[in-house]
DNA sequence: TCTTTAATAGGAATTATTACTGTTTAGGAG
DNA sequence: CTCCTAAACAGTAATAATTCCTATTAAAGA
């Protein structure tokens, strides 16, 4: 995991993530490691998770803060990583997905489908300023 | 919208949600209404959004706090509303969904599929204590 | 071993959200 | 129409989640 430098803390954090299948929060990881690493700080956990997520070694689930929608009917969303907006997408709700998920013994009421990418508006801007294409917002 | 009682504040909050297609955060709604409702408080916005979401008049997107996963390969999740856990689900990643989403002119890199329901473990508990079935945790 | 600088610890600061308390008001009874 | 009561509000305090800041520690190349 060649991020920049090896660190005991990051290694242990990654271990915790690999061991349990529970998608722990930063705080859960902190609590788990604290006993064996008394000097560990919560900031370190957050920083390393962020870093590993940026590098693609782990995945970060869910967005930053809750958002709301007046449209109750299920529909999917696009999170534009360029402008940060959350847009509606006309991808139809596929109930078959729910039934497929229930194969594993759970009971599904609904699902949320969030795409990540660049919205059409931002794609347009890109075309105008092709020089920016390499920049990493 | 027969929640309990009519309130000007709730009406206006709902209006904002219907007008803009931007899935505003609670604070964005507050900022938008504050000029015309100088005594509006942020707590009122949060409370009414929560209330309307509970009643099903609006939808709340995204979960409570960020979680992390050591599994980088795309896979879907089940949020169990009973025990609050986020579990992996063996529903295969469907790249066709990304292509379908791009019909609208955006560029999609990946998607996140989160199911909501009751996990198999909690389903088991239900069977044991059928009396609780009616309770609303 | 020494040096350089990324990474850490610890705590302060920020942001998002909920909870609490006293005041206002919707809406039904008289 | 006026009065009453509980629901909803405003304002503020409290909590939770996350990031930022500064001095210190330590990885790893010379």
Features:
homodimer, 137 residues, alpha+beta, 3-stranded mixed sheet, 5 strands, disordered C terminus, DNA-binding
How does this model look, in words?
Two copies of one chain form a homodimer. Chain A has helices at 8-19, 26-33, 42-55, 95-101, 120-128, and strands at 59-61, 67-69, 76-80, 86-89, 107-118. Chain A is an alpha+beta fold and 137 residues long. Chain A is extended, with a radius of gyration of 19 Å. At the A-B interface, helix 1, strand 1, strand 2, strand 3 and strand 4 of A face helix 1, strand 1, strand 2, strand 3 and strand 4 of B. Strand 2 (67-69) of chain A pairs antiparallel with strand 1 of chain B, so a sheet runs across the interface. Chain A binds a DNA duplex (30 and 30 nucleotides) through residues 4-7, 9-10, 25-27, 39-44, 46-48, 50, 64-66.
